[in-house]
């Protein structure tokens, strides 16, 4: 089993969208969760995050979670949405450097530029659709890499 943890800021937009999309797209033998570095536990996902997932046939029933030791211990791979999230996580959990990456960094080859996943928070529906579409492309690559990884 490969346990993947997506991390963003408040766990109401990017990481729950990544979690829901990954859950729908994923292969056998993978589990997924999400958390935020500054999450207030128990908040619903943002309205537009729910809307853009619904366009893909995904009903999102999500409650935000703060990043915890338990989630870190559960995960085989911690993927942050930005390099700043990665820096914070490494500062708080310095022993996990071997399993901590930005999502873009994890799937990038040497010649590709590494970009952060844009935060749609406060944006309009189109902004959320763009973030969802970016996440889908990244997750397709991620799943391929994880499927090809020796068990």
Automatic annotation (TrEMBL):
InterPro entries: LMW_PTPase, Ptyr_pPase, Ptyr_pPase_sf, Tyr_phospatase_low_mol_wt. The keyword Hydrolase applies. Transmembrane segments: none annotated. Keywords: Hydrolase, Protein phosphatase. It holds the Pfam family LMWPc. Residues 2-145 form the Phosphotyrosine protein phosphatase I domain. Belongs to the low molecular weight phosphotyrosine protein phosphatase family. This is Low molecular weight protein arginine phosphatase. It comes from Bacillus carboniphilus. The lineage of its organism: Bacteria, Bacillati, Bacillota, Bacilli, Bacillales.
